[in-house]
User: Fold this.
Amino acid sequence: MLDLEEITARFQAIADYARHGKVNHRWLAALPGQLEALSRAWELEIGTDVETDFTSGVSSVVIACTGPLGASSLKLAADSYALAEEVSMLRQFAPSGRVPEVRNTARGAVLLEAVTPGTPVEKLPEQPDPVEYARFLDDLHAVGDPEAAPRRITDWLELMYGWTERGGLDVADSRRITAELLADPADRVLLHGDLHLGNVLASDSRGLVARSPIACAGERCFDAADYVLEGWDRAAMLRRRDELASEARLDVDRLDAWCRAMAPLGASRSNTPERISELLAFGRGEY
Assistant:
């Protein structure tokens, strides 16, 4: 049974920390009824593992379950249009084998293949090396139609920069760097768009698997930047940059520029002073 008070508290804490979005209390109150109806319609046995997310200010709940197709994850979202977009992009990426299978859909709900063990890469004791991560990026970017992207990369960047500025960080240099990059575009693929390592899961059967795309069209270095910036300090970031560029056949200078542009965004999501300092220094090119 859903503990609505506990789930509401989680959403409120995330909303307060992120400084954007509002908790949709009306949607939360309707969750038990929606869950009961879907359980009957899709013959699901609901588990006890519940994950909450507030990505881009959109509330969602992911619940472990089992059904006729085996272990699954039931995702319920307050914004049914945003979830429908996510489902469409997961289907675009499906031939890569690097996203969960979409098993069923309804308004505001999607039943996804369960990723086992499904641990976010950011929480692994040892993160994937650049060789493994390059294979993951290669597979993901080899499929999908850039023309199907639901947003322009410039609009997505503007939203992210706006959130970062409201958090008190200066992104003037980031804006300048990305404007220069976009004025001289490189390869154009369908990007995941939000490939921080909390959205990359470990799978026993398929290696690395991406979830929750906020897709746009652009160059591959954009999706690669988050992996580089997960290095603990500047030396580790530089190693990741050089090795990933080599393994994934990326232009190292363009990857470096995207990483510098994105570094303040990574700093805005961190609550560790040492890591914030390292990311901001990397963004300034102090290495």
Observations:
- DSSP finds ten helices and ten strands in the chain.
- The CA atoms of residues 83 and 169 lie 30 Å apart.
- Strands lie at 45-53, 60-67, 70-77, 102-106, 109-113, 117-120, 189-191, 200-203, 207-210, 216-218.
- Residues 4-114 form a domain with the Phosphorylase Kinase; domain 1 fold (CATH 3.30.200.20).
